Amino acid sequence: APDNTKFPLNVYSMLSSSFASSKRRLQAEHSSLIDSALNKQSLRSQALEEARARRAREKEAASAQRAASHERLLHEEEQLFLTREKGGGVLFSSELRVTALACASLHDSGASKNIRRRADKILLPSSAKAELENQPGFVKGSPSFAITANGKTTHAGLLGFGAPDQQIGLPPSILENLNIDDADVGKIQGVQVHVQYVRLPKGQSAKFQPVQAGFEERVSGGDVEAALQTELLTRCTLTAGDTLHVPSSEGTTLTVRVVGAEPESAVQVVDVDLEAIVLPSEEAEAAMEAARRREAALEEARRAFEAAHPPPPSKPAPAKMKAAAPESDEQQAPQPSAEERRRAALEALEKRR
């Protein structure tokens, strides 16, 4: 039978309020679930983007590393080719230490052999001998080497292979041209230099510049060409930037710079007819430059004086000549005109030169 039970009004209100509360709770839970799902999706998208960006960066870094490695290999191959080309097909490039022991061995070996051209000859270790002589392009007669240290490069010949392992003996002239102090050579570790086998062309001409003024008058014997020839007979090579020392008539030495050489900046001077070009000394050039500056300063002062004291305008001749006044016994000396004063000032300025 149909249930015709009727609920009180307050029961209906309670049920309606409960249903509304449940609905709101369910809607809030649904919104929370949707927000959580959207947040998770956003985090996944962000993680994917970061992963893609990381892979792109890694790929770019790997590509840059491969390019840098390739560039480095090309540079090494180019340097190897240039080194071999400079050596005429012989490849020898090494880092060696200049020590007092090796330099002493060099001095003793050169003195015992009585070799004249030993002012720029070096002593290499025995390991370098096998490395050089096993290459067919190595010239035993007069090999040349480029020595680099302290940002400077000079060249040298070879005295022998008697230096200790990983060491090199350098003569005083090479040490001076490389700015290496004796105190540094005396240290336990010595001074590291780079040594490379090279082939130098025979010298055709060289430019020399004395440091001290009056070089031609002060050189020993008064013969500049003979003095330079005597110094060159003690050397095998000549490099632009090197410093030479020639004896003076006063019992001291005169310093000479090698300004340049032909056909290259570094040449061999063994069995060559070298043209020596002697330039004005550094002190003479400094004196000429100072004189030139003084001359320019005086010229500027003269122009400034003329601008400040222009000549007076010329006066037109009077139409009629006045009769000359009779001369008195006590006539005063005439005063100089403005033009005469201007000329006197210019003459005084010229005398100051």
Structural account:
The protein has 353 residues and is α/β, with parallel strands linked by helices. Helix content is 46%, strand content 20%. It is built from nine helices and twelve strands. A six-stranded mixed β-sheet has the order 2-4-3-6-1-5. Strands 9-10-7-12 form a four-stranded mixed β-sheet. Helix 8 packs antiparallel against helix 9. The N and C termini lie far apart (146 Å). The mean pLDDT is 82.
Reconstruct the topology from this structure.
Layout: H1 9-86, E1 93-98, H2 100-113, E2 121-125, H3 126-133, E3 144-149, E4 152-163, E5 167-168, H4 172-177, H5 182-185, E6 191-198, E7 205-210, H6 215-218, H7 224-232, E8 237-239, E9 243-247, E10 253-262, E11 266-268, E12 275-278, H8 282-308, H9 338-351
Parallel strand pairs: 1-5, 2-4, 7-12
Antiparallel strand pairs: 1-6, 3-4, 3-6, 7-10, 8-11, 9-10
Features:
single chain; 353 residues; alpha/beta; six-stranded mixed sheet; four-stranded mixed sheet; 9 helices; 12 strands
- How much is the average pLDDT? 82
Given helix and strand content, the structural type is: alpha/beta
Task: Give the total of beta strands.
Answer: 12
Outline type:
flat
Provide a count of the helices. Answer: 9
> Which consecutive residue ranges, at least 5 long each, have pLDDT under 50?
none
Strand percentage lies at 15-25%
Task: State the separation between the terminal residues, measured CA to CA.
Answer: 146 Å
Q: Give the strand line-up of the largest sheet.
A: 2-4-3-6-1-5
Helical content class? 40-55%
Q: What is the ordering of alpha helices and beta strands?
A: HEHEHEEEHHEEHHEEEEEHH
